[in-house]
């Protein structure tokens, strides 16, 4: 090597530069930058089920309770209140199921039609996308079940209490607690403010029951209930 350096120092310097350049390339290839992968969960995937469940439960609570309180404003016996609440529960559950089925099925048809218009989407990819769409039957069943669960709260609260004032107070208290619980659950699953969501649901429910009771009582005072 000494002879090469003495006889041709320029060539030797070129070889050294090439070796250094190759080493730099190898070192550059071996260095892998550390990338921190943060998994972000898409909470919008819960929106369809959360919306159906919360709406169903709230409607079951408010519709049944308001109907029972309203009827109780003019008919204070427990049998009349419970029968009115039971009729409202069955009718409301069927209504929620049918409405949710029609709504989700319409959305499903629109999404599928849009996919079919996209010429670049092949059949296999189209089937995969269809499976990701909300199921109308499942949405209808979830909505009806949630309505039933909510509607059972005021029925159970009033079924075994004979005193009228205690019965109405029990219904209002049970429904208020349930509204706070459903509002808190909705806020927890959707990662929204807990207190704000619970208060919003509670205030709306109390207003609904109060308005129904007041208007029914007013109509009853006119003699239409006789």
TrEMBL record:
Keyword annotations from UniProtKB, A to Z: Ion transport, Iron, Iron transport, Membrane, Transmembrane, Transmembrane helix, Transport, Vacuole
Bilayer-crossing regions: 52-74, 80-105, 139-161, 167-189, 201-224
GO CC term (a single one): vacuolar membrane
A biological-process GO annotation: intracellular manganese ion homeostasis
Gene Ontology MF terms: iron ion sequestering activity; iron ion transmembrane transporter activity; manganese ion transmembrane transporter activity
Localization terms from the record: Vacuole membrane
Superkingdom in the source lineage: Eukaryota
Membrane topology: Multi-pass membrane protein
Known catalytic reactions: Fe(2+)(in) = Fe(2+)(out)
Claim: Transmembrane is one of the keywords in the record: yes
Major localisation: membrane
Family per record: Belongs to the CCC1 family.
Function (record text): Vacuolar Fe(2+) uptake transporter.
PANTHER family: FE(2+)/MN(2+) TRANSPORTER PCL1
Name used for this protein in its record: Vacuolar iron transporter
Species assigned in the record: Fraxinus pennsylvanica
């Amino acid at each position: 090597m000494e002879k090469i350096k003495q006889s041709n120092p320029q060539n030797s310097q070129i070889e050294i530069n090439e070796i250094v350049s190759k080493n730099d390339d190898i070192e550059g290839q071996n260095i892998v930058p550390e990338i921190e992968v943060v998994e972000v969960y898409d909470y919008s995937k819960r929106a369809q089920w959360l919306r159906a469940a919360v709406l169903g439960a709230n409607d079951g609570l408010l519709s049944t309770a308001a109907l029972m309180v309203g009827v109780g404003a003019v008919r204070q016996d427990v049998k009349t209140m419970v029968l009115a609440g039971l009729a409202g529960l069955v009718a409301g559950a069927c209504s929620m199921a049918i409405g949710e089925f029609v709504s989700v099925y319409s959305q499903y048809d629109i999404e599928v039609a849009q996919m079919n218009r996209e010429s670049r989407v092949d059949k296999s990819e189209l089937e995969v996308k269809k499976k990701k769409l909300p199921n109308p039957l499942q949405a209808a069943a979830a909505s009806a079940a949630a309505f039933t669960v909510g509607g059972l709260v005021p029925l159970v609260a009033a079924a075994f209490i004979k005193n009228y004032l205690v019965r109405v107070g029990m219904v209002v208290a049970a429904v208020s607690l349930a509204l706070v619980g459903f509002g808190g659950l909705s806020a927890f699953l959707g990662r929204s403010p807990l207190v704000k969501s619970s208060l919003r649901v509670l205030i709306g429910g109390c207003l609904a029951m109060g308005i129904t009771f007041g208007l029914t009582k007013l109509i009853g005072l006119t003699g239409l209930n006789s």
